């Protein structure tokens, strides 16, 4: 750190904190809003959905409360945590659940209003590295077919998550122009944060104005919102910019849509399109209500069982199902797929065929 190691332990800890968390003054002015959007209170189904996902082996905070304790409390009396998350100040482990609840609502707002840039492929639902690569291949082949020169510049930004400024995140949240309790709470979480190092003379604290841990559940949304400001700039014609998390690629060429690769033409409309993400508000989402079976009639008979399977072995892909009644196989179905099909496609095909078979039965069916 270009300074001699002298002084007491607290002063040395202070120099470490200054080096790791430099103070970079970036002004932030909150834009006043005339009206706060009405939001539903956190409910049991929202909290239950988060509780199912949280790991039980994470270390607790300074209060000694871990996720095992929270799950036990929620099973015994859910109203305790529902009240906490809607009214009270929270302790460390409880805050982690709150962040996940707020993140679900923030992502819902971004998806519903189409506020995520289409060229951001990282840290997003229904986006992948394969799509980013195919997008670049599309641009390359389009330039090649039109006899144009093309240049790709790929940037791997070092330490972006460690240097992500809280003022930049707050500005991005403010630019959404959606004044709500969710955004106000997320902004408050980024305010007055401190880091500390315990020393023999007591803890040494320092204001934290940057840095978003990669394990943080809010990291994907915060980073994408800040990075989208770059993607949304008016770039010159022929310049295509895409991003995947902290990696950015500039492609300078003529833009195209379909892809021609090694003499084969791939028409985008000939392939299955990605299913849109859910636009149901987290407070209104109920997994039990997503799949319904109308007109169920109580029956004393044992339900018919349908077992499905999809597999891929030695470049051979296939789907199958069988119907079991009274512990006896009464019907079988199988199909051979192309070697290019994946095992997931084979499993989906088996489920589809099983559902079609179940629809013809006038009895209860378990798949």
UniProtKB/TrEMBL annotation:
SUPFAM superfamilies: DNA/RNA polymerases (SSF56672). GO terms for molecular function: nucleic acid binding. Residues 90-246 form the Reverse transcriptase domain. GO terms for biological process: DNA biosynthetic process. Coiled coil: none annotated. PANTHER family: REVERSE TRANSCRIPTASES. This is Reverse transcriptase domain-containing protein.
């Amino acid at each position: 750190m270009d300074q001699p190691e002298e002084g007491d332990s607290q002063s040395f800890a202070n120099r470490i904190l200054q080096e790791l968390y430099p103070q970079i003054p970036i002004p932030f002015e909150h834009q006043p809003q005339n009206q706060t959007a009405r939001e539903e209170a956190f409910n049991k189904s929202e909290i239950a959905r988060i509780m199912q996902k949280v790991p039980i082996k994470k270390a607790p905070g300074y209060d000694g409360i871990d996720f095992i304790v929270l799950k036990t409390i929620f099973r015994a009396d859910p109203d305790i945590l529902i009240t906490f998350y809607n009214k009270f100040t929270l302790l460390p482990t409880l805050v982690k659940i709150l962040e996940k609840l707020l993140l679900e609502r923030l992502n819902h707002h971004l998806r519903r209003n189409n506020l995520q840039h289409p060229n951001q492929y990282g840290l997003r639902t229904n986006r992948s590295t394969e799509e980013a690569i195919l997008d670049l291949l599309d641009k390359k082949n389009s330039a090649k077919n039109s006899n144009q020169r093309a240049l790709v510049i790929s940037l791997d930004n070092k330490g972006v998550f460690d240097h992500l400024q809280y003022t930049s995140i707050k500005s991005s949240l403010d630019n959404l122009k959606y004044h709500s309790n969710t955004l106000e709470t997320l902004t408050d979480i980024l305010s007055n944060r401190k880091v500390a190092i315990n020393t023999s003379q007591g803890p040494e604290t320092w204001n934290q104005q940057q840095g978003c841990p990669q394990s943080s559940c809010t990291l994907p949304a915060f980073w994408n919102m800040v990075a989208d400001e770059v993607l949304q700039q008016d770039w010159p014609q022929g310049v295509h910019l895409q991003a995947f998390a902290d990696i950015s690629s500039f492609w300078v060429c003529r833009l195209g849509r379909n892809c021609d690769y090694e003499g084969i033409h791939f028409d985008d409309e000939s392939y299955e399109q990605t299913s849109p993400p859910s636009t149901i508000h987290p407070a209104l989402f109920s997994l039990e209500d997503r799949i319904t079976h109308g007109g169920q009639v109580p029956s004393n008979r044992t339900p018919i069982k349908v077992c499905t399977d999809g597999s891929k072995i030695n470049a051979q892909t296939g789907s199958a199902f069988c119907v079991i009644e009274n512990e006896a196989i009464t019907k079988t179905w199988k199909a051979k797929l192309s070697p290019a099909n994946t095992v997931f496609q084979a499993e989906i095909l088996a489920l589809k065929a099983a559902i079609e078979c179940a629809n013809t039965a006038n009895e209860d069916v378990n798949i």
